[in-house]
Amino acid sequence: MDNTSDFKDFYGSLQLIYDSALINIVSRLNIIRKYKTANGYRDPIENIKTRLKSPESMKKKLISKGLEPVSENIPGNINDAAGARVICTYVDDVYEVANTLAAQKDLNVITIKDYIKTPKTSGYRSYHMIIEVPIYIGEECHNVRAELQIRTLSMDFWASLEHKIHYKHDIPSRAIIESELRRCADEVASVEMNFITIRDMINAAQKEDER
Ligand code: 0O2
Question: Is residue 128 within 6 Å of ligand 1 at its C-beta?
Fold first, then answer.
């Protein structure tokens, strides 16, 4: 397990830069939420979690890319040292949040992987963005990259469950578990579309009542 001093020892001055990038990104997301609720709309975000990739996991990633496992090799080679997971209520909220962020002029979208439109073979669904934000530390401006994973509550629940089998080796029932997870992923996707239909029906009924 990594502790605070392991992070400091490994990341050095990069820790402040990545932590600041995450503060910046969370602030942008919170402004989106405030703007929505201030205008009488529903908050599309349930919660936001951030993390700096653990030194252990970062070292493995650097080695897998043929790089020496030192923090100097992170900028320019690894985009997910800083990561934020944004949990939305409905699938269409995921796209609304992603598009609102992408429209911000001082935020650069580097890549998008839409695993909602095209799920992974495991059944994994989520919307991934690598973004770059300008961060001033003292007088110096750093363009810092971070990974955003935007997904619904149900997608997040599925991913947490599926993540548990990544670290388990020699499970005799692996094939059955994987196939059950794929089936659940399909069912969740279908139920989530029904949620949107029901939500829209409720909204329409409410509007009718208010007339
Ligand atoms: P951790 O510990 O969660 O950070 P890249 O990062 O670009 O080198 P890749 O696989 O091309 O690698 O990136 P991608 O597809 O955007 O996925 C990155 C992250 O998405 C993973 O981070 C996981 O958090 C999550 N993810 C991707 N596929 C799956 C999946 O099948 N199941 C689950 N539960 N999560 C997934 P890390 O770095 O692997 O791990």
Answer: yes
Quick one: tokens of 49? 């979690």
The counts of H helices and E strands in the chain are 6, 5
Q: What is the pLDDT of residue 172?
A: 83
Atom of ligand 1 nearest to the CA of 53: 4
Report the nearest atom of ligand 1 relative to the CA of 115.
15
* Strand 82-88, strand 45-52: pairing: antiparallel
Q: How far is the CA of 1 from the centre of ligand 1 (A)?
A: 20
Kindly report, residue by residue over 51-106, the tens digit of the pLDDT.
999 999 999 999 999 999 999 999 999 999 999 999 999 999 999 999 999 999 99
Could you tell me the distance, in angstroms and rounded to a whole number, from the CA of residue 50 to the centre of ligand 1? 15
Residues in CB range of 122: below 8 A, 6 or more apart: 162, 178, 181, 182, 185
**Helix (H) or strand (E) run with residue 92 in it:** helix 91-102
